[in-house]
Amino acid sequence: MTIISTMSPVSLSTAALDLVVERDQQRLSLARYGTPAQSWLHPVTEGALFTVTVNGQRFTNLDLTLVGIEMDYATAGVQHMTAQFSGSGFEVAHHHKVFQDTALTEMWQVIRCVGEQPIRVTRCDSFALDIPAADYELFYYTTDWGDEFKPVYKTLDTAIQLETRLGRSSKGQHPWFALTRDGGEVLSGSVAWSGNWTFRFEPMEAGGFRLSGGLHDWEFAKDLAPTATLETPIVVLVLGKDLNTVSQQYARIGRRYWYPRTSLTRKTPVEWNHWWSYEDTYITEEIFRQNVDVAEKMGVEICVLDAGWFGPSDAGTFWYDYRGDWDMVNTERFPSGLRALSDYTHAHGMKFGLWCEIEALGVKAHLAETHPELVALRDGERMGYICLGNPATEEFTYQTLTRLIREYDLDWIKLDFNLDPGAGCNRTDHGHGAGDGLYAHYAGYYRMLERVRRDFPEVTLEGCSSGGLRIDLGLLRRLDLHFLSDPDYPVHDLQLFWGATTMLAPDACLHWSFGEWIGKNPPPPQNFNPRDPKLTPHQFDYYTRISMLNVFGYSQKLPELPAWVDARLTKHTQIYKDHVRRFVREADLYRLTGQPHRDGGGDRWSAFQYRLPDQSENVLFVFRLPGGEASRTIKLYDLQPDRLYRIVGFEGEDMGAMRGYDLMETGLCFDTLPEEGSVLLRVV
To answer: What is the CATH number of the domain that holds 567?
Structure first.
């Protein structure tokens, strides 16, 4: 730790970022922010870094007294500045991290009550930034069930607020934005928080805009007793010349510093999950065993038993009603118990996983009667979950997951969350106040996950929330990977992958190939039938290769697949394991085409390039979507101009050789792919 006592500016700059804070007596302000070639800092305003509202009064770093600055270089490649400020009855520690060779920064604060009287915090913006006047285009995503990562582009010429008030980070809007200036450089931001968040873009009288955000102030108030603290969510900001360079920085830092990894997820495994083909209605011990038998032959590495295993021992038990009764196994469906199923899967050389919605409370769950003190209430009404703002609930969830892991020898837990908690619990007998129940819940959930991770470092934790409605960099610091969406039809999958990887590395994303659903009311495009006589090999390859872009999984009735479908899926699984997954977990990703839209709009070709960090090898995925023109030329990125590259497939395809310069400037022409056709190529 280095304590800075001089009055000279403090540089947090890297090779890709010019970031300087300036000391002026007992004040600290942002003096420079941008890439070495271009500033994003307003030339007139003083340089705010954050804002807090305490006892009804708003403060920035410019209004508080600077006490001191410390620099921490203990983590390789990271500069961590902590600036201490004092106010009336409170202190603020402003944390600012920068990462070597990137233009990515993290900011958050710790607010402490230091007076003799409590203080009330009602707003805390983890970052504030005044940007100059320019032509800006704001890009963000709206999200809902089966409609995740829907793009919105707006000219920034008036006040805009991005937010969610539904209690899940990705319900309504995704906690991410990209702001493009004058058609060129991009500033992106993301709130690393799983609850309510906001980003504000407010015009200033001096021209330009004031950006701020972090924890949402809607229905929020935190009372701090003397010596108590409040830690604000981390906000990440990234600069880049375009969206690809921005997303690559998110991925590189995520892989190196954020994402936990087990030995299983370091391998980027192939997963089979029972859900859409059986749901809870048809899954049984015998059916799961039959699928395990086939999965072993196909090369699957992890088999996951989804919902339907718990609750009363009745074949008609509906999973949603009994969430919370994790001590009950439905022995009508699983007469030998879950440990026997786990042992069977392990005996076949695969890992075993289990679904659990640990936060949820079904309407028929006995937990509400046996442990009423755990129940989340708002104005006296049950909210459908248990409140981890209560230390007793935090302990209950930890002990429950611990028991499941040990009793069933689990290698993987899929943690779901299928409700909108809104502003959260306002019980005052849980240890939180009436205004900070949601904040306390997520703080407790994070602590519980960290404890599970510490005590069971080799158990993979998968995130899910009605599919993709709670995807954020707060959870992805505690989970190995996240499920992207419940539906899995092809164009939807491509829209999801294009969008999710603007913030997440591909190996933090799990989604399944086009699955056969048994549900009564699936989305209209969710119509895959592996036994359809009109299904062609090129269509099946297209469906399957889309899922190979990220962590590869499928949810099929494996014993009932036609022989040729089984053979093709087995072949693709082997190609993924032998060749592709190395790129998914290590390489930089380039979007070579625009985002396709599930409604038939957007780009009707979709192409992605993976390039290994040492530039030795590339993998190219190309898909022609329904409605795509007959021919498309795809240009690659960041190749060595004078190197001769050979373009070959994994099943004997050979497109010859081209110089890197020609691949980047002229591109590869694809004019023989049918609609719903695809190619997977090596560029070496």
So the answer is: 3.20.20.70
Q: 476 by DSSP, 3-state: which?
A: helix
Tokens in use for 531? 């036994």
Q: Supply the mean pLDDT for the chain.
A: 97
pLDDT band at 524 (very low <50, low <70, confident <90, very high): very high
What's the whole-model pTM score?
A: 0.97
Residue 23: CATH number of its domain: 2.70.98.60
Q: Do residues 495 and 629 share a domain?
A: no
271 DSSP β-pair partners: 302, 553
Give the chain's largest Cα–Cα span. Answer: 78
CB 447 within 8 A of CB 167: no
Angle, nearest 10°, between helix axes 537-547 and 490-500?
A: 30
Do 540 and 565 contact (CB within 8 A), yes or no? yes
Domain boundary among 585, 603, 618: 585
pLDDT at 5: 59
**264 in a structural domain:** no
**d(Cα 28, Cα 83) in Å, to the nearest integer?**
9
Determine the Cα–Cα distance for residues 662 and 135; give it in Å rounded to an integer: 33
Q: Write the pLDDT tens digit of every residue in 22-52.
A: 988 789 999 999 999 899 999 999 999 999 9
Q: Are 410 and 381 found together in one domain? A: yes
**42 close to 206: Cβ distance less than 8 angstroms:** yes
Q: What percentage of the chain carries pLDDT values higher than 70? A: 99
Domain assignment of residue 521, given as a range: 270-585
Return the number of other C-beta atoms located less than 10 Å from residue 406's C-beta: 11
Instruction: Give tens-digit pLDDT for 448-460.
Output: 999 999 999 999 9
Q: For the segment 530-567, what is each residue's pLDDT rounded down to a tens digit?
A: 999 999 999 999 999 999 999 999 999 999 999 999 99
What's the CATH code of the domain at 669?
Answer: 2.60.40.1180
Residues 411 and 545 in one domain: yes
Could you tell me which of 472, 475, 559, 481 has the C-alpha nearest to residue 516?
A: 559
The answer to whether residue 194 sits within a structural domain is yes
Give which of 649, 657, 654 is closest to 682, Cα–Cα. 649
- 141 pairs with which residues across the strands? 151
First to last CA, the chain: 45
Q: List phi, psi (to 5°) of 461.
A: -115, 115
Residues 374 and 251 in one domain: no
**Which structure tokens are listed for 49?**
């870094």
20 and 92 belong to one structural domain: yes
pLDDT tens, position by position, 386-441 = 999 999 999 999 999 999 999 999 999 999 999 999 999 999 999 999 999 999 99
> Which SS3 state, helix, strand or coil, does residue 158 take?
coil
What's residue 6's pLDDT? 58
Does 579 lie in the same domain as 604?
Answer: no
Q: Tokens standing for 102? A: 């990137």
Same-domain pairing of 607 and 542: no
Evaluate whether residue 265 is within a structural domain: no
pLDDT per residue as tens digits for the range 50-84: 999 999 999 999 999 999 999 999 999 999 999 99
Distance CA 501, CA 508 (A): 9
Task: Tell which of 258, 286, 318 closes a domain.
Answer: 258
Structurally, the chain folds into a number of domains equal to 3
φ, ψ of residue 663 in degrees (nearest 5): -65, -30
| 434 located within any domain | yes
Q: Are residues 510 and 626 located together in one domain of the fold? A: no
